[in-house]
Specification:
The structure is a single chain. Helix 2 runs parallel beside helix 14, helix 3 crosses helix 14 and helix 5 crosses helix 11. With 330 residues, this protein is an all-alpha fold. It is globular, with a radius of gyration of 20 Å.
């Protein structure tokens, strides 16, 4: 139609379909004083959506074994993201130079994280499992310094200290109960280290592929060994099917954590330095504990409120204060 001009897409939608900044700049995040606004929006959304994932996972894993559960999540999430990419007109093929980095990132971000976290959450309280998982920023800060050469500034150290203190406030009094289920705690610690390694790996490589398609292929490739494991172990769908509650919880996991969160997190990783992206996730276990209290009746009290304040302080130091300093200069 003559004179018709397509309305510009909002920044976050445009980044979703176009895969973020150009290849020459996408892996060179802005300095701490100039963090992109789209990254803040994504961090806020994924905090709430993934925080609610923990009680949902606990409900599903009460009726569905770990291996088939993760197979469904990975295949459903991967195919869903590819469909979105196709709809957005993105190329779905993986450039040859991206194949090896893709396999490495899949191993840590998908296979290691998803299996360890699923086993861990099946062996302990969902809220407490999320707390151990989010020691990830500590490992990401160390690996980011050693592998990427990212500076560990005073603000990042303060942010890490506040955030991990918040985790300690929550988990400290429960160390005895964790000792009663050491395997669950070990699985969750393994999940945290695997996730941190994968986060740094995504930053380590320069990608030609878009973030959306990269995330989709990581999920689908990770589904292959997980599906084979499910067949070898003999775990399948329950003969009696899933309850309505479990089906609704599974739908939530597929729609938000597996579709939106997976893309959003790796978009944030490509926008921000690895340690800031990692620290930005520290509010997720707070939402996980609170949502587990509402949905599952798990206990919540003064410790959770103190931890929330400490984590908010950590987020303010590494995310909010740099943005305010930049606003004053403008």
């Amino acid at each position: 139609m003559a004179g018709f001009r397509q309305a510009p897409r909002p920044p976050v939608i445009r980044m979703a379909l176009e895969g973020g900044p150009p290849a020459s700049t996408q892996d060179k995040p802005a300095p701490d004083s100039a963090l992109p606004a789209s990254g803040f929006l994504l961090l806020t959304a994924l905090t709430f959506f993934w925080g609610g994932n923990w009680p949902a996972m606990k409900i599903v894993l009460g009726e569905l074994a770990v291996w088939p559960f993760r197979t469904i999540c990975l295949i459903g999430g991967g195919l869903g993201l590819l469909a979105i990419a196709r709809f957005g007109g993105l190329p779905l093929t993986v450039p040859q130079r991206d194949l090896r980095p893709l396999l490495i990132c899949t191993l840590f971000n998908v296979v290691g994280w998803h299996l360890c976290s699923a086993y861990g959450i099946s062996l302990m309280q969902a809220g407490r499992a999320s707390i151990i998982a989010f020691t990830m920023p500590l490992w990401a800060a160390l690996l980011g310094h050693w592998v990427l050469g990212e500076r560990i500034t005073a603000a990042k150290i303060v942010g890490l200290a506040l955030g991990l203190t918040g985790m300690a406030v929550l988990i400290g009094p429960d160390l005895q109960s964790l000792g009663a289920a050491p395997l669950g705690a070990l699985f969750m610690l393994g999940a945290a280290v695997s996730w941190a390694t994968g986060t740094v790996a995504v930053k380590r490589f320069t990608w030609q592929i878009s973030t959306l398609v990269l995330t989709a292929w990581m999920l689908l490739l990770g589904a292959i060994p997980v599906a084979i494991g499910a067949l070898l172990i003999g775990e399948g769908l329950p003969a009696e099917g899933l309850s309505t509650q479990a089906l609704l919880a599974l739908a939530y996991v597929l729609a938000l954590p597996m579709l939106f969160y997976q893309w959003a997190y790796f978009s944030v990783v490509r926008l921000f330095p690895a340690v800031i992206a990692a620290i930005g996730t520290l509010a997720i276990p707070i939402v996980g504990v609170l949502s587990s209290a509402v949905v599952l009746g798990e206990p919540v009290g003064l410790r959770e409120l103190i931890a929330l304040c400490l984590v908010c302080g950590a987020l303010a130091v590494v995310l909010v204060l740099p943005a305010l300093r930049e606003a004053r200069k403008a």
